[in-house]
Amino acid sequence: MDRDEALALDAADPLAPLREHFEIPAGLIYLDGNSLGMLPRATSARLREVVEGEWGRGLIGSWNSAGWMELPRRVGDKIASLVGAGPGELVVADSTSVNLYKVLSAALTIAHDAAPQRRVVLSERGNFPTDLYIAEALARERGCELVLAEPGELRRHLDERTAVLMVTQVDYRSGALHAMAALSAQAHAAGALTVWDLAHSAGALAVDLHRDGADFAVGCGYKYLNGGPGAPAFVWAHPRHADRFRQPLAGWMGHAAPFEFTPGYRPAAGIARYLCGTPPVLGLAALECGVDTLLAAQPLGGIAALRAKAMALTTIFEARVSAACPELTLASPRDAARRGNQVSHAHAEAGYGAVQALIARGVVGDFRAPDILRFGFAPIYLRHVDAWDAAGHLVDVMASGAWRRPEFNRRQGVT
Amino acid sequence: MDRDEALALDAADPLAPLREHFEIPAGLIYLDGNSLGMLPRATSARLREVVEGEWGRGLIGSWNSAGWMELPRRVGDKIASLVGAGPGELVVADSTSVNLYKVLSAALTIAHDAAPQRRVVLSERGNFPTDLYIAEALARERGCELVLAEPGELRRHLDERTAVLMVTQVDYRSGALHAMAALSAQAHAAGALTVWDLAHSAGALAVDLHRDGADFAVGCGYKYLNGGPGAPAFVWAHPRHADRFRQPLAGWMGHAAPFEFTPGYRPAAGIARYLCGTPPVLGLAALECGVDTLLAAQPLGGIAALRAKAMALTTIFEARVSAACPELTLASPRDAARRGNQVSHAHAEAGYGAVQALIARGVVGDFRAPDILRFGFAPIYLRHVDAWDAAGHLVDVMASGAWRRPEFNRRQGVT
User: Fold this and answer.
1) Taking CB atoms and an 8 Å limit, are B259 and A414 in contact across chains?
2) Would residue B222 show up in a list of annotated catalytic residues for this protein?
3) A395 in contact with chain B, both atoms CB, cutoff 8 A
4) Residues A8 and A61 in one domain
5) Interface of A with B in 85-124 (CB under 8 A)
6) Which of A123, A278, A348, B126 falls 20 to 30 Å from B320 in CA-CA distance?
7) Is B286 at the interface with chain A, CB within 8 A?
8) Residue A415: its pLDDT value, please?
9) Do A229 and B62 touch (CB under 8 A)?
10) A&B contacts, CB < 8 Å
11) Within this chain, do residues A216 and A319 fall inside the same structural domain, yes or no?
């Protein structure tokens, strides 16, 4: 492959026009859409309309007239269509962490009720920390145990004590992708329920929650869904579970009739009981614009087509880097089908400095301690030539030793 | 009093210029700032800067370079200065309901640890429903009991079984105002902890959490703080409690070192452990603009001066309505010092239609089932003449029987 071939792929790419839905700073190659998606073109004007029109002029009446009350369900239905869930099954609310608390609480209770000896939440040691923190705290509170397995060892730990298998489909460091259907089937065979975190899946992979055996799912609005910094998250419960449990965060928006202002809690039917406080309208409006960029891909093949392009992008990048930089260890699965839309390499010393040197060149990835260079490929706004050029920059940074330069190794900040 | 006197009060009002900080639709008298505060002039431009500049161009780097990571603390410190809390003691996070869950969990645990027989959460039957729902669910989970007292009967129910007294300082229907210092002292004398909901207090009353014996507090960003629809909420723990308990929503932002990505949860020191998920940047940015409008009042006497003006406004309105409308029953305390910045009247039939008829005249209050006409007076953007004129409109609506007209009695929507 050479650069002309990458350009030819872009010229022939039916998804290429989707890039126009985004504000892309000139010259930037942004490989961090798996941490914060880019700004959709529509978002700023939409927020202005919400702020100046709906809030500023419509004021309190906009809860009804502008449909604010419906936003958690309306945006939820749109996300549902991207992850194989039905309308009315998914709502936008709170953060991923808070939603995980709700669904883990529900799953633990349902599992206990069926079989009291099931007191283990099983997850991976490398799962995203907030998932583990939430599970650890909840397990302690419930007299349960959080058991952490090494990658690939989950199946071996599934047994008659397992209440819930809690897995993030795509590993945030390595990008390794769990086969949702197979792992769910193994969990179910062992009598356990499944909680899937779709943080790096929603908008990226052709998730099919119903087909692939999920019992509960949560996901993030600000990564591949392009919802903006700290966008609200989403929560889904399989319809066979949604009505079975009063999740602990019994706020008024999950009440069957919140505006009757009655003192006793009566949960809404279905997933609506997973709502809690007043909907965050600004965040929801921005998230809807982000989700709409993915819906715009539907006539072009939708998520399946985007996923195929993303595999091509990660393959271009990975192959060029791995071939030219033997000092970097590929930390992702080599087979694009076995990783998310992400490529990670490890280097004992170079990681931080190399990522900073790349940023200075206009190629934005991120470093994940202690040694991971992580690059996410959002196919909705990236071109094949971006993957090619980004790889070339990384090859240069490694070959030139630029990663060693002091200005790229002054550690500061938090992300 | 007559209209000229109201105009004279406005002409002499040192707080009058604060109205210029808001976008106020021409001719509107907005008496629902206790439900959704008006739009500050600065908000739209600030959001545009956050969206187009910080997100669109700064992208992931803005977590550091634009100070996004610090927003929960920075805006928290500003709110702290309005409620008698110290810097570093209060953070903005999640919703009021979710924050209530955190602090009630903490208070129950601390109370149990000190005295295991304390298993009662005591509150008022008329407390805002979401507070009761959250407490009810948590009490059930913990094997505790939620006891609800009638107004004025709280003191009688405080005893050696009481773990926590949970009170909203201003009743959302009647506006009745609890004396925080006296009630806190009674709770402490009975050995209980106090959780104060400042939903209708923050930005409205000269709250002094330290002086007045609060142990924990939560509050709302979208009422008198003018943070916008569904703005994030805030949470405060007295420094003597803040480090004593791991609140159950142990998300990564409450970790001592979230970006070390370590699997075990280690809570941050102080109130920071009450953070949970990724900060909602858009909501926080808008909330900061809202809080800044109140900080702009500081050189003019601050909250104390605003509160004095609000008492004048509610007095003008209440006196004119009560004098001219004997068919309306005053549902608020007659003494302005004993109610929040709000006046409520009750009428068995007229409530809904009268509020709708007023809205048609450009006077926005709200109806609270079954029979309450509720009017909130945010002194930062309201004039004395607004209170006078609003009362006149209500008097007209009642005297003319306009409230009976069918077009004002088609019930729809939710708020």
Assistant:
1) yes
2) yes
3) no
4) no
5) 94-98, 101
6) B126
7) yes
8) 47
9) yes
10) 285
11) no
Contact A20, A41 (CB under 8 A): yes
Domain's final residue, options A226, A260, A295: A295
CATH number at residue B258: 3.40.640.10
% chain A with pLDDT above 90: 95
pLDDT at B77 exceeding the cut of 70: yes
Q: Are residues B68 and B152 in the same domain?
A: yes
B40 belongs to a structural domain: no
Statement to judge: residues B254 and B344 lie in one domain: no
Distance CA B280, CA A47 (A): 15
- Given the structure tokens 């390595």, which residue do they identify? A174
Identify whether residues B272 and B345 lie together within a single domain: no
Q: How far apart are CA A234 and CA A95, in angstroms?
A: 8
The alpha carbon of residue B357 and the mean position of all alpha carbons in its chain are separated, in whole angstroms, by 27
What's the average model confidence in pLDDT over A215-224?
98
Residues B142-192: tens digit of each pLDDT:
999 999 999 789 999 999 999 999 999 999 999 999 999 999 999 999 999
Which of A241, A276, A295 is the C-terminal boundary of a domain?
Answer: A295
Asked whether residue A44 is domain-assigned, the answer is no
User: Residue A7: is it exposed, middle or buried by C-beta count within 10 angstroms (0-12/13-18/19+)?
Assistant: middle
Contact B282 A229 (CB under 8 A): yes
Average pLDDT rounded to a whole number, residues B324-353: 97
Give the amino acid at B376: G
Lookup: tokens for A361:
């060149």
Using the predicted structure, report yes or no on whether residue B132 has a pLDDT greater than 50: yes
The CATH number covering residue B374 comes to 3.90.1150.10
Q: B158 lies in which domain range? A: 49-295
The confidence band for B20, taking pLDDT boundaries of 50, 70 and 90, is very high
Q: Are A284 and A164 part of one and the same domain?
A: yes
The verdict on residue B415 lying in a domain is no
B374 is catalytic: yes
pLDDT digits (tens, 9 = 90+) for A335-379: 999 999 999 999 999 999 999 999 999 999 999 989 999 999 999
The whole-number pLDDT of residue B413 equals 57
Q: Are residues B232 and B256 in the same domain?
A: yes
Touching check for B282 and chain A: CB below 8 Å?
yes
B203 touches A: beta carbon within 8 Å:
no
For chain A, positions 121-150, list CB contacts with chain B under 8 A. 125, 127-130, 132-134, 136-138, 141, 148
Beta strands in A320-384 (DSSP E): 329-330, 342-346, 363-364, 366-368, 372-376
**Which residues in chain B have Cβ-Cβ distances shorter than 8 Å to A197?**
none
pLDDT value at A23 more than 70: yes
Helix (H) or strand (E) holding A352: helix A351-360
Decide: B395 and B321 in contact? Cβ < 8 Å: yes
The verdict on whether omega for the bond into residue A370 sits within 30 degrees of 0, i.e. cis, is yes
**Summary mean pLDDT of chain B:** 96
Considering the domain architecture, whether residues A101 and A217 belong to the same structural domain is answered as: yes
* Confidence at residue A263, expressed as pLDDT on a 0 to 100 scale: 82
In chain A, the number of structural domains is 2
Q: Taking residues B6-16, what's their average pLDDT? A: 98
Report the predicted TM-score, pTM, of the whole model to 2 decimal places. Answer: 0.98
pLDDT at B412 over 70: no
pLDDT grade, residue A412 (50/70/90)? Answer: low
Residue A415 covered by a domain: no
CA atoms of A57 and A144, how far apart (whole Å)? 51
Q: Dihedral of the CA atoms B271, B273, B277, B283 (nearest 10)?
A: 0
